[in-house]
Design a protein that fits this description.
CATH topology of the largest domain: Arc Repressor Mutant, subunit A
Order of helices and strands: HEHEHHEHEHEHHHHHHEEHHHEEEHEEEH
Radius of gyration: 22 Å
Strand order of the largest sheet: 8-9-10-11-13-12
CATH class of the largest domain: Mainly Alpha
Strand content: 15-25%
Distance between the termini: 30 Å
Largest sheet: 6 strands, mixed
CATH architecture of the largest domain: Orthogonal Bundle
Structural class: alpha/beta
Number of strands: 13
CATH superfamily of the largest domain: Winged helix-like DNA-binding domain superfamily/Winged helix DNA-binding domain
Number of domains: 2
Length: 388
């Protein structure tokens, strides 16, 4: 069992708020974490994909009144979106009776339905926590390359072989295409969505060009935007926005697109193992996306991520504006040599960051110049975790 770093955050949130929503893609370990908390707190657990558990909540107020003094875990909460309206009254009644915190732990896919329902009815009563696949900090340093190759979904990472891991990821992709995406989004043939997802994998880390995707799939640009919006809402795709600053230069305004789990990128491209990955054209974009996901996950809450690119050639792979306003800029290299590009030096002059790093495949930390340091991804994650 690999202990998730998020466990403490969820426990702290339950101690401070009436309801906590743990949201994230399927199969990242939300239920496993919730069951650990449920055993510790003698909580009631209901799986709302189970018809018998859903039947218990036909009259939610009456049923849950019997468990007013216990934590209630509601898994797959998006299956019963109307329940949010009932939870508001139950929480408010509990507050009047002195039960202000630790009432409900809600688990579900990060869908528009989930976000809208909870935002409208539980404002001021709920805290969101996003749970993703394994991060590099949750594993041994020697497992970093395997994490990059297989991705962080627990069953993929822990599979007994590379072949077993790839087959598991293929099954997950099929499940999303045939079940989850149609549940939350437009009715689109699964083969069309798979082609679109594969196209995204081929251009991992590239600028979003909706017209190009639309031509390839023979759909409209507006349809491509809807597909992207849905995958972003399901936490499967990251839309990294350009960092906006007043530098008096012409900035690139299109977002960059990443499939958030590197293992899914490799499965979509039929990259079978680590050695095959090293010889594939996507290796640079895949490593860049892997590092970006890990750094954003390690950054403090309310950090604003982005990228910077000008028409003149200045470029930064990742800009992190930390909660206090401090700006860190990061260039990402897969090679074992941390050599910044000319565009990175130009960006330093434009952005005037507090810190500038080149994240590379090595582990040594050393100065490249007066303003730039070479650093490994794990050490930089540790630095971000110490920012207040």
């Amino acid at each position: 069992m690999i202990r998730r770093l998020l466990l403490g955050n969820v426990q702290d949130a339950l101690a401070e708020q009436a309801a906590v929503a743990l949201i994230g893609p399927r199969q990242v370990g939300k239920t496993t974490l919730a069951l650990d908390i449920a055993r510790e707190k003698n909580a009631l657990y209901l799986d709302l994909e189970n018809s018998s558990d859903r039947a218990k909540l036909q009259s939610p107020a009456g049923f849950l009144r019997a468990y007013e003094d216990r934590l209630v875990v509601l898994d797959e909460i998006h299956r019963v979106p109307d329940l949010f309206l009932e939870l508001r009254g139950i929480i408010d009644q509990g507050r009047r009776n002195g039960r202000r915190t630790g009432r409900f732990l809600l688990l579900g896919s990060a869908s528009l339905d989930l976000l809208k329902q909870s935002t409208e009815s539980l404002a001021g009563r709920i805290r969101y926590i996003e749970m993703g696949p394994f991060s590099a900090q949750e594993l041994a340093p020697a497992q970093l390359e395997m994490l990059w190759s297989r991705g962080g979904f627990p069953d993929s990472f822990l599979a007994g072989s590379d072949r077993g891991s790839l087959l598991w990821r293929d099954d997950l992709i099929r499940s999303y295409l045939e079940r989850d995406i149609p549940m939350f989004g437009p009715r689109v043939p699964s083969e069309t969505l798979r082609r679109f997802w594969t196209m995204l994998a081929h251009v991992q880390g590239g600028l979003l060009n909706s017209s190009r995707f639309a031509a390839g799939l023979e759909v409209s640009s507006q349809t491509i935007t809807r597909y992207i919006d849905l995958l972003v809402d399901l936490l499967m795709v990251r839309r990294l926005m350009p960092y906006s600053t007043n530098v008096g230069k012409r900035l690139v305004k299109s977002p960059k697109i990443y499939i958030r789990d590197s293992g899914l990128v490799h499965a979509l491209l039929n990259i079978r193992d680590f050695q095959s990955l090293l010889g594939h054209p996507v290796v640079g974009g895949s490593w860049e996306g892997f590092v970006i996901e890990n750094l954003i996950g390690a950054a403090p809450v309310r950090t604003v991520p982005g990228f910077y690119r000008t028409s003149g050639g200045a470029e930064v792979d990742l800009v992190l504006e930390l909660p206090g306003g401090e700006r860190w800029i990061i260039e990402i290299k897969r090679s074992g040599v941390a050599r910044p590009s000319k565009g990175f030096y130009e960006a330093i002059g434009d952005l005037k960051p507090a810190k500038a790093f080149v994240v590379y495949a090595g582990t040594d930390r050393y100065p490249i110049s007066e303003r730039i340091e070479a650093i490994g991804v794990l050490e930089l994650m540790g630095m971000l975790g110490c920012v207040l």
